[in-house]
Write a structure and sequence with these properties.
Length: 129
Amino acid sequence: MEESVQVKNNEDSIKKSRSVEKNKIQNETITTELHFELLKQYAWLSSAIIGAVVILIQLKVLTFGSKVYIPLGCFCFSILNSLIAQDYIVESLTKGKTIYDISKKVYILRNFSIFGLGLGVGLLANSFI
């Protein structure tokens, strides 16, 4: 009787460990996709703001001068960091690494990207004042 209970407990723990492993793989996939999509959105938003700046210059709302160069550079910096992080994710995954192995570098690049975007928006808003 005692052995059958122990065998049943072992079978339950094996099922749970398989379930945990399956969830870990699914979470890793979702985490990777979310990181990639977030970086894509940062790059898209920065390029959309660059397009808006070009339109504002054509409408003569903004003058193309030194107050516009630095925000445009910040937006380009944001796009560049987003693309580098996306490329790093793809390269690392093709080499067999997981998103958890590369999360620190992706985190740094992602923060540089949002920093460039935020700084560019702030400097651009300052040029209207």
